[in-house]
Amino acid sequence: MGNTAEEKPQIPLLTPYQMGNFQLSHRVVLAPMTRQRSYNNVPQSHAVLYYSQRASKGGFMLSEATGVSDTAQGYPETPGIWTKEQVEGWKPIVDAVHAKGAVFFCQIWHVGRVSNTGFQPNGQAPISSTDKELTIETQPSGDVMQYSPPRRLTTEEIPQIVNDFRIAARNAIEAGKPLVIVHTNLRLFYANILANSLSSSGFDGIEVHGAHGYLIDQFLKDGVNDRTDQYGGSLENRCRFAHEIVEAVTAEIGAERVGIRLSPFADYMESGDSDPNTLGLHLAETLSRYGILYCHMVEPRMETADEKFECPHSLVPMRRAFKGTFIVASGYDREDGNKAVEEDRADLVAFGRLFLANPDLPKRFELNAPLNKYDRDTFYIPDPVVGYTDYPFLDETT
Ligand SMILES: Cc1cc2nc3c(=O)[nH]c(=O)nc-3n(C[C@H](O)[C@H](O)[C@H](O)COP(=O)(O)O)c2cc1C
Fold first, then answer.
1. CB of 225 closer than 6 angstroms to any ligand 1 atom
2. pTM reported for the whole predicted model
3. Can you tell me which atom of ligand 1 is nearest the CA of 379?
4. Which of 34, 73, 304, 375 has most ligand 1 atoms within 8 Å of CB, for mutation?
5. How many separate domains does the chain show?
6. Is the CB of 207 under 6 A from ligand 1?
7. Which CATH number goes with the domain that contains 275?
8. Burial tier of 225 (Cβ tally within 10 Å: 0-12, 13-18, 19+)
């Protein structure tokens, strides 16, 4: 008699995968998703349920984008990881995810110019690679966002921002040993003191948010970056800021705990590049040299409410060039996620909206069960339950 487990056809997304030190039991990743329910930038106890609902043994999950400093915010009620209160707020959430046996990374970000003076300390201008202002934009929710003219960072200020990422990475992982302070800047000094006084919030690693038109992307893309110093102009110069951040967080917490998300093809927030294939390939090659755990790339396809548009570009050359784990995202469902793994175009596939609406998504994929539909209107409302923890599990719907 054959073993029934052996008789089952293999579902590529549900096969195990060794990601560095992490033994994953399946390849269905929770994509990072901003939920705007962290009042005053502090993660709330209702997030314990939200994230633990989506946790499974050996699953890999990414947190919503989490601000690295008080200048990093551009949306209401998004979490941070630069104060003691925020770090403490994350702990029960991370603990709950770990109790279910999942691996949890914190996505750390800075919005750069995707902000306005209302989000900034002392009403100052948002910072960016440029002083070019974003034009008014209507959000998917229908809300109109008003952006303030950004202030171009001086060359001398850039190490401070790199350091904010380093401290955020450390806060996500552990308090660690005291730092040697070589910088005389007071802000840097106090940030280091604070980092040393914090205890671990216990994430397993961090994902640097280098995608979607936020600060790092504002340096990477030639449609935004108009600098004339060593952070602008050539491809190498535009990638310098991203490289310095990766180098800093890698030195701080170890390359085996660091991933990065990139979207070379996207032009969200007016951040297009004239040669995204070259940019993406260059990043995949150069970031490999740091030995980081993974590269998480957003597919070059567009999706509207009704239709998916494939485009002629492909992530495959970047997949081949990158030495670590390769994660793909955007517009995937069970069928083409399975295909991407089967054809070795990706090691893991991140799911956003489907995972938001289906807390037991890996289980549903396993059973090929019907999926709940997501409700776009409740993506970003501040309610601690509605559109957040009230999507039914399979056994509740059947
Ligand atoms: C509500 C919502 C919030 C999002 N927030 C983030 C975020 O914080 N960081 C990020 O990198 N991407 C964010 N994204 C993009 C998703 O991670 C994902 O790339 C996108 O939804 C496309 O994948 P999907 O087709 O599987 O939903 C967000 C998407 C949604 C729907």
1. no
2. 0.92
3. 1
4. 34
5. 1
6. no
7. 3.20.20.70
8. buried
